[in-house]
Design a protein that fits this description.
This protein has helices at about 10-20, 25-35, 50-65, 70-75, 90-100, 120-125, 135-145, 160-165, 170-175, 195-205, 235-245, 260-270, 285-295, 305-310, 330-335, 355-365; strands spanning about 40-45, 80-85, 110, 130-135, 155-160, 185-190, 210, 225-230, 250-255, 275-280, 300-305, 320, 345-350. With about 400 residues, the protein is of the alpha/beta class. The protein has 2 domains: about 5-210, P-loop containing nucleotide triphosphate hydrolases (Rossmann fold, 3-Layer(aba) Sandwich); about 225-365, Rossmann fold, CATH 3.40.50.300. The two termini are about 30 Å apart. It binds adenosine monophosphate. Adenosine monophosphate binds near residues 24, 49 and 52.
Amino acid sequence: MSFVNLRLADPLVRAIADRGYAQPTPIQTQAIPLILAGRDLLAAAQTGTGKTAAFALPLLHRLSASRTGGPNREVRRPVRALVLTPTRELAAQVGDSFRAYGRYLSVRTATIFGGVNIRPQIDTLRRGVDILVATPGRLLDHAQQRTLSLADVEILILDEADRMLDMGFIPDIRRILALLPRQRQNLLFSATFPDAIRTLADGLLNQPAVIDVAPRNTPAARVSQQVHPVERSRKPALLSHLVQAGNWGQTLVFTRTKHGANRLAQQLEQDGISATAIHGNKSQAARTRALADFKQGKVRVLVATDIAARGLDIEQLPQVVNYDLPHVPEDYVHRIGRTGRAGRAGAAVSLVCADEAPQLHGIQRLLGHSIPSRVVDGFGPIGSYSPPLAATPRSRPRQRPGR
Ligand code: AMP
């Protein structure tokens, strides 16, 4: 299968070639024809599968193919496609993707999110935008200030819907839905399908096609996983040791709390390892700078909370560390999905103290197997820690997005 078979417009095929993509990913192969045909879509996919291009390419194709609406519409240039994302970083990345894929088309994309001055966004909206990528809160601010009309939206995309749920955005989404025309195409992308997302999907989607490409609970095969049992108080020293002894380059470290992220970044710096923290309490400018420094290799370790890390697209990330295990087992899969992308090898290491045994058990159940465990020399023995519990595979390990 090549992109040419997907019958995308030539300017899109050229832009894809510029990006160096040789062939579509599974979600692209499945989703693109359905979206081009105007179907509603319920898609199970997580970051790293190529999901952004899976909706961006057919959407650009459709919008550029149907510049309908006559001269009046051309003058007003209303928003025709709305993409909602949970985080600012994801909005920025999705907006960049639309601009990259649409570079040979005259379709305008704008990105709007909170935490930055609203004035330039108002000016951009006034000049006219075809595709709007937005986080829910700031979008509603614009709607309330009447600096934006959503009355002409033809296609709605909810990206990472489960994360919107986690972040408490579902009421905002319902408010936004009330501002849209009834007749439209709807696409919902989510990594997991808790009940609240199913309910939302039921009310939103019209006889959707269902695709499920990403085995969410199966991390990329090329990610090696390892647990290092350790006393909680020795975690910072163990992390510094692993980074230095293993000569790790770009390392993404997950902590559960924002405070913990800050403290750990400071500790690493004290140990002579350049590190920075990224989380929701930081200003947008600080988050953007931290990510840029990490991507450029100026900072060796990026310490992040789950929410801040969601949607970060960092190419070739070799090493992910779970400094704390997440409470939600699915987050473990999301976290380690940050490495081993696009067929490259990656390593995911978890520092696990005795009181995290229940979380480890939950993760192993979800994976359906246990994770190899090894005490690092000089960092054991560890008090009451019991070896990883034998995995009890779920009888039905994967939740399907359909019913
Ligand atoms: P996403 O799942 O949308 O976050 O995309 C993950 C990464 O895959 C991004 O860096 C994309 O640029 C890249 N990507 C998307 N589609 C393809 C493709 N067909 N071939 C190779 N890389 C791709």
